[in-house]
Amino acid sequence: MKMELIQPFINSADAVLAESLQCETRTGDLSMEEEAYRRKGVAAIVEINGDIEGRIILDTDSKTAIKVAAHLAGAEVNPSDELVRETVCELANMVIGNAVTSLNDQGFHFKISPPQVHASEQGLKGNEETEALVMCFDTPKGSVFMNIAMQYNRRRKEERAAAVVG
Amino acid sequence: MEQFAALVRSKDNKPVRYLIVDDSIFARKNLAKMLESFGGEVVGEAGDGCTAITEYERLHPDLVLMDITMPQMEGIEAAERIVRQYPNARVVMVSSVGYQENIVAALQKGARHFVQKPVKADVLYEVVRYVMGDDVLTAQTVGAGGK
């Protein structure tokens, strides 16, 4: 997975978390995940289709999700509240949407699906081509993880190359 | 939250009436909180484009805030349908996906403006004032008898 694809997601997560939580964030560990993805707590998944294909998961442990939801709601929230899951979904939407905006302006064309709560414990494994990359963003409310597995769409790439040659 | 001078309709000095369209409950609550801090009244909410159209027909709000990526019917199509039927409808797109192609498409289909998420209250306030134009007054100017 090339850095040109990853950097917009790092920049976007940093900016969106800092703006939404009104705090400073720190980009923590960045690692390749060889094992199947294991959910940490409350997770939202967004699929992308087009010149680049794959999926991105925004994930955080339950305590952090509750703290973030309470901060953004400006009130206490019940741990079982739908608002906690909604908050993580909307954060994913904003982080991924802003990154997609940047990539589209660089010439990559693709669409994203509305974020969905990712409920299964595991099962989304990267492969040699999709290589799941995991990033951690530390905030005063706790750590937020982003798990990215995506690849260039080979068919689209070949079509573009053919168009250039033609 | 920041303090804003209340915005009222110039025709009757009543609060500006808003319809919020977003599939995220969290996003709708967040926007509602901001609009209420502008002195506005959120008269309706919708979670997809189809419901947005029926809610617009039922409520005739002064301004619609419309997300783009939604299930069933996306925001740009819903905006187009609303504006086609009600040419004076004011629709502002609010989305995290703000690439040029998307913005141009939305404006071509009749949206009046675009605000990128995460929404900043001061940016939204200025956009509401701009889009409402002469149809809105700020509260401190109401008593003064002009804008």
Describe this entry's structure for a reader.
The complex is a heterodimer of chains A (166) and B (147). By secondary structure, chain A is α+β, with helices and mostly antiparallel strands. Chain A has 4 helices and 7 strands; from the N terminus they run H-E-E-E-H-H-E-E-E-E-H. In chain A, strands 1, 2, 3, 4, 5, 6 and 7 form a 7-stranded antiparallel β-sheet that branches. The two termini of chain A are 28 Å apart. Chain B has 6 helices and 7 strands, in the order E-E-H-E-H-E-H-E-H-E-H-E-H. Chain B has helices spanning 25-37, 49-59, 75-85, 100-108, 121-132, 139-142; strands spanning 7-9, 17-21, 41-46, 63-66, 91-95, 113-116, 136-138. In chain B, the strands form 2 sheets. In chain B, strands 3-2-4-5-6 form a 5-stranded parallel β-sheet, with helices on both faces. In chain B, strands 1-7 form a two-stranded antiparallel sheet. Chain B is globular. The A-B interface holds A 16, 19-20, 69, 72-74, 82-83, 86-87, 89-90, 93-98, 100-101, 104-105, 109, 112-114 and B 1, 23-27, 29-30, 33, 69-71, 95-102, 116-118, 120.
Distance between the termini of chain A: 28 Å
Q: Any idea what the shape of chain A is?
A: elongated
Q: What is the number of helices of chain B?
A: 6
What radius of gyration of chain B results from the CA coordinates?
A: 14 Å
Strand order of the largest sheet of chain B: 3-2-4-5-6
Question: Could you tell me which chain pair has the largest interface and how many residues each side has?
Answer: A-B, 27 and 24 residues
**Strand count of chain B:** 7
Beta percentage of chain B is 15-25%
Give unreliable regions of chain B as ranges: 142-147
Number of strands of chain A: 7
What profile does the largest beta sheet of chain B have? 5 strands, parallel
| Low-confidence sequence ranges of chain A | none
Mean pLDDT of chain A: 84
